[in-house]
Design goal:
The structure is a homodimer.
Chain A (H helix, E strand, L loop, with lengths): L1 H13 L5 H8 L3 H8 L7 H13 L6 H8 L4 E6 L5 H16 L3 E6 L4 H13 L4 E4 L9 H8 L3 E5 L9 E5 L1 H14 L5 E5 L5 H16 L9 E3 L4 H13 L6 E4 L2 H13 L9 E3 L16 E3 L2 H17 L9 E4 L2 E3 L10
Parallel strand pairs in A: 1-2, 1-3, 3-4, 4-5, 5-11, 6-7, 6-8, 8-9
Antiparallel strand pairs in A: 10-12
Helix pairs in contact in A: 2-3, 2-4, 3-4, 6-13, 9-10, 11-12
Chain A binds a DNA duplex (16 and 16 nucleotides) through helix 3 and helix 5.
Chain lengths: ~350, ~350
DNA sequence: CTGAAAGCGCTAACAA
DNA sequence: TTGTTAGCGCTTTCAG
C-alpha cells in the first residue's frame, strides 16, 4: 500500500544514523558478515574486513551499543553512585576508577545521591534499568535500609562498595582504616597536651563513622584521657553542622581544648565560629578534620586532616569489579581492602611549634 | 534435542531478572498486554492493570530500558560532558540540570573530559553509542576542532552548550556575559585606584576567555588606563599556572598593582605566591578571580570574584534541551541565553576600606 | 479489551 | 569464508 511505501520513504529521509545493515547493503553483504568483520572475527577474509571498515568510516557508522548490549546481555556500563560530586575525595575516586575501567572497555554512568536515600534508590533503579554490569557505590548518609543494595545483588549485578559500606552486605569493599585514623588523631592531640577532646561525629548508623567514634574512645582511654559524653555530637558533617555544634561546644561549662571533626567541611564550619569568637586556633582550641579536601591547606590556619587515599580507592574498586566480572560464577572470596590512613599535620593542631 | 532442553533449563536457573514475558506467563496474558498495562494504556481493563502491577512487584520486575529504548528509538538518556567534575561551578550546574531532567523522565550520564580533546571525543562516541537523546556539554580547554560536535548534530542528537561554547556551532547556548564581567572587574579596580592591571588569561581560542580579554582591554581603555601587553599571559588557569605566571609578573621591571585572573584556581595560585613573597594583598597588589569557587570565601584574604550563576545555567540548559526534544523538527530559533554576571567584592581587592 | 506479529540493531549458532 | 535464522526485551500497529 501507499502507506507502507510512504513510511519507508520517510524513514530513509529521517535516518541519520547508519547501521550495520546499511554497510551490508552498500557492500552486498549480510549484516552478520559485517558484524563479524567489525569485531575482527577470524573467519572473515581480510579484504572483506577492510572493505567493511572503510565503508563504516564513510557512512560514519556508530555502533549501537544498546542493541549489542541487549543481544549479549552485557552493557559494558558500570554505574557509580556517590553522595555528592563536589568533593575532592569522591571526584578523585571516580577519576581513577574511570581510568581503569575505560582501559577495559567499560564506561561509567555517574550519579549522585545528594546523601538522600530516595535519590539513591532511584539511581539504583535507573542504573539497573539501563542494564549496567555492575555498580560501585558509596552509601548516602541517610541510608539505613539495605534492601536496594540487596536488590542489586539479587539481579546478578556486581556490587562493590567503597568508603561508606556496611559489613552486613556481603560484597567487596575498599576503604581506609577508620578506627586507626582516630588513633592517629588522638595520639597526635595527646602529644600536643590536649586533655579535653571533643568529637564532631557522623551518624552512628554508618559504619565508618561508628568506627571513628570507637577509635576515638579507645584511643582516649589508651592515652589515659577522660571521655566527655557531652562532647560527642552526631551530625551530617556539613559546614552548617560544624558551625552549630561548635557553638554548642563553646557553651559547655567546661570547654574542650581540641576538636576532632569526622569531616573536613564540619571542621571548616567549626573554624569559622572559632575565628568569629576570636578563639585562637590551635592555642586555645586545636582542630582536626578528615578527608584532606583542598581547602584544608588554604584556610588560615591550615587544617590538620586525614588523607584517605582516594586514588588508590578508585583504582582498587575498579579492579575488584573487573575481577568479579571475569569470574562471575567463581566463588572468589570477598575482598575487604583496608588502606592505611595518613595524618597530615598542619597549623590547626600544632600547639608546640617545633 | 537434549541440547536445546539443557539450554532452557540452564537459562531458567541463571535467570535473575524477570521480564515482561514472565509476568505475562504468570498471569496467562501476552507480553503485549502486560506492556500496555504497565504503561497505563487506556484500552486495558483496570483489573488487568492492577494484577499486572501486583505481579510486577512480586516478581521484582525491573523494566529493561535498553530494549525499550531500542524499540522506541529514544533512550531518555542525556549525556553531560564537563571538563572536570571537581569544580563547584560544574557540579552545581549538573546538579540543577539533573533536577530538571529527572522531573521529565530523563537520566543523566555524566562524563568528564579532564580538559583533554581525546577524552572528549571518546566521551562523545560512547554517549552516541548508548543512544543518548541529547548531549549537554561545556568544551574542554584543549578543544579547537569542532568535528565531533558537528557529528553529534549530524546524527540527529540534540546538542546544548554551556559556559564554554563556540559561536560557529549552530546550537543553543547558555552562559554569562564574559565581556561584561571584565568590565565589572576593571571598573571596580579602577575605583580602587589600580593603574597597572595584569591579566592571567585563559587560552584565546576559547570564546569565553577571548571575550574576557577583550572586555579587559576595552574596559581599560574606557577607564583611560594603559594596556601592558607583557601583563597579559595565557594559560590553563590551574593553580600551578597561577603560581608560575604570578612569579613572572613579579619579575617585570614595572610590577602590576592588580591582577585579574580569568579563573579562581589561577587566582589562588597567584595568592599563594604573593603570600610567600610577603606582598600585601590588596594593599600592594589587588587580586580578582572568576567563578566564585567556595575557597574564594575561605582564603585569607578572601578573594573577590565573579558569580557565574551555575544553578540558572544548569536549569536553563536542561530546559533548552527539553524544548528541542519536544519540537525535534520544528525550526525553533536558536537560543543564546546570556546571563548577567555578578561581582562579589571581597578583601583581596578592597584597597580603600569603607 | 486483548492477542498476534513484526521489528528496533546487533550477535551467535548453525548451515551452506 | 559467508549466509540464514532466531532472538535479546520491549512496543506498536492491526486484528479480533
Amino acid at each position: 500500500m501507499f502507506n507502507r511505501l510512504n513510511k519507508y520513504i520517510k524513514k530513509l529521509e529521517i535516518k541519520k544514523k547508519s547501521t550495520i545493515k546499511d554497510i551490508a547493503i552498500a557492500l552486498g553483504l549480510t549484516p552478520s558478515a559485517v558484524s563479524k568483520a567489525l569485531s575482527n572475527h577470524p573467519r572473515i577474509s581480510d579484504k572483506t574486513k577492510e572493505a567493511v571498515k572503510k565503508m563504516a568510516l564513510t557512512l560514519d557508522y556508530q555502533p549501537n551499543t544498546l542493541s549489542s548490549a541487549l543481544r549479549k546481555g552485557k552493557s559494558n556500563l558500570v554505574g557509580v553512585i556517590i553522595p555528592r560530586v563536589n568533593s575532592n575525595f569522591f571526584s578523585s575516586v571516580v577519576e581513577n576508577m574511570e581510568e581503569v575501567l575505560n582501559a577495559h572497555g567499560y564506561n561509567i554512568v555517574m550519579t549522585q545521591s545528594n546523601e538522600l536515600y530516595d535519590k539513591e534508590c532511584k539511581s539504583i533503579d535507573s542504573l539497573l534499568g539501563i542494564q549496567v554490569d555492575g555498580i560501585i557505590a558509596s552509601m548516602a548518609n541517610e541510608t539505613t535500609c539495605l534492601d536496594y543494595y540487596n536488590k542489586i545483588k539479587s539481579k546478578g549485578v556486581q556490587l562493590v562498595l567503597f568508603d561508606r559500606g556496611e559489613d552486613e552486605l556481603d560484597v567487596d569493599y575498599i576503604g581506609i582504616d577508620d578506627y586507626k585514623s582516630s588513633h592517629l588523631i588522638i595520639d597526635h592531640l595527646h602529644l600536643q597536651n590536649c586533655k579535653k577532646i571533643a568529637h564532631i561525629a557522623g551518624f552512628n548508623h554508618i559504619r565508618i563513622y561508628k568506627d571513628r567514634v570507637q577509635g576515638y574512645r579507645d584511643a582516649l582511654e589508651k592515652c589515659g584521657l577522660p571521655i566527655y559524653e557531652e562532647m560527642i555530637i552526631e551530625s551530617n558533617l556539613r559546614i552548617e553542622d560544624g558551625r552549630r555544634i561548635m557553638k554548642e561546644l563553646l557553651k559547655l561549662p567546661e570547654r574542650p581544648d581540641a576538636v576532632y571533626a569526622a569531616g573536613d567541611y564540619a571542621a571548616l564550619g567549626a573554624l569559622q565560629v572559632l575565628k568569629e569568637e576570636n578563639i585562637k586556633v590551635p592555642e586555645e582550641i586545636a582542630l582536626i578534620g578528615f578527608s584532606n579536601e583542598p581547602f584544608t591547606s588554604l584556610s588560615s590556619p591550615t587544617i590538620t586532616t586525614i588523607n584517605q587515599q582516594s586514588a588508590q580507592i578508585g583504582k582498587l574498586a575498579a579492579e575488584a569489579f573487573l575481577e568479579r566480572v571475569k569470574n562471575p560464577k567463581g566463588r572468589i572470596h570477598l575482598k575487604k581492602i583496608i588502606l592505611e590512613p595518613e595524618l597530615i599535620i598542619r597549623e590547626s593542631s600544632q600547639k608546640n611549634d617545633l
